[in-house]
Amino acid sequence: MEVSIQTANSEHLNGIHGLVLEWGYPTSTSETLDWMKALMNSSNHQVFVAVCDNSIVGWTAVEKRILLGEGVISEITGLVVRSSCRRMGIGQLLINAVEIWSQNLGLSRILVRSNLFRVESHEFYPSAGFELMKTTKVYTKELTGAHTSGGYRGHSCDP
Question: Which pTM does this prediction carry?
């Protein structure tokens, strides 16, 4: 089985979308396309696909991030390999692509977050050279209405 790692493009949509669904995120093809276009048009993001026999068998998305207290880092924001193709080295090939992309941007550290329920990933990332830094809870809040003022207006601190 020969696998090539490529920079994602719109021709990879159906394969990427299928893996987004397998990953457990119900979304439409058009939403996936919108997200892909935004990522592909950003100089701070990259999406790589693993291709085998003209089929997408994995993908990863990476982001250049600036974190107060940590500086500029690379963060893997998604990595999935088709379930029937796991434990064949595809994930490591995708990680290698992320490492090269990150090094080319002058970044010296890669961060990845993994859901506690994704047990396989907790074995995979350490085997790929990652060290467990911390466990955390993630909170989300749905917002209604679009904010269009162009900036944040805080309260005055003057007494």
Answer: 0.84
